[in-house]
Amino acid sequence: MSQPQMQIAALEVSSQAVTATVPSEGATVLSIIERMARDPNIDPDRVERFLVMAREDRAERARVAFIAAMAACQAELPRVLRDARNTHSGAPYARLETIARATQPIIARHGFSLSFDTQPSLIAGHLRIRCTCAHAAGHERDYYLDLPPDTAGTQGRANKTPIQGIGATITYGRRYLVLQVFNIALTNDPDDTDGAPAADGSEDVISDAQAETLRNLLTEHGIAPAKFLRVFKVESVPDLPAALYGEALAAIERAVARRARGEGH
To answer: Is 92 strand, coil or helix?
Structure first.
């Protein structure tokens, strides 16, 4: 996929509809409500305030359980092998099914489930892919990714029908949302998929701030992102290995210098 314009956001949801209570807690709350309802001296407003407080307490308990389960889950998740290669850019990537096979049993064991949907994007010409991460305790968070339809290759020529482009975009979005939600690391080393750090740290990628710096430089100097990705054999700017960050900055500087000398891109 050519370099997309991406916006990722997370929205926490702790509404009455999604908060859950364990049976003992629910029975206790119902018992209190029944006693209050039978007491003619109880102010109805007091009952309502109690119900609001109970719902808020359940929502907070569910949120805390979500956070604790997420931390435990991430601690167990392995690095996932980049087992495929983009036919246009040559960049290695991990298939969606590879990510699911390596991580789904752990994710499910910690009480999480994922569901995906699409909706109109706030960015013209883009498609929004939404991922809802729900936990068994009743808390959920929505994540979304805005992407342009993937109908063209790195040279800008159409290589898919519109329908195929939408399908490819949804698959791409689902893949990156799963990685985003659970902070899953990728590796090119088949022997480095057990969750341990790479021996020499060579598989670490650049930080979000470094990725933003590179994007800004590419935009400022009118350098085609697709060319940059092709040169460094990565699928997206954030996938650039940390060890190559200095080289990437130098490459941009050289390109700017060549342009200033009239040598072209």
So the answer is: strand
The answer to whether 54 touches 29, Cβ cutoff 8 Å, is yes
Instruction: Quickly count: other Cβ atoms within 10 Å of residue 55's Cβ.
Output: 16
Distance CA 248, CA 64 (A): 41
- Between CA 205 and CA 122 the distance in angstroms is 29
pTM (predicted TM-score)? 0.59
- Whether 146 and 15 have beta carbons less than 8 Å apart is answered as no
Which structure tokens are listed for 159?
Answer: 């290589």
């959920």: which residue's tokens? 140
The residue written with tokens 């979500």 in the block is 66
Report the chain's C-alpha Rg in angstroms: 24
- What is the tens place of the pLDDT at every residue in 33-74? 777 767 777 777 777 787 788 888 889 999 999 999 999 999
What is the spatial distance between Cα 140 and Cα 47, in angstroms, rounded to a whole number? Answer: 28
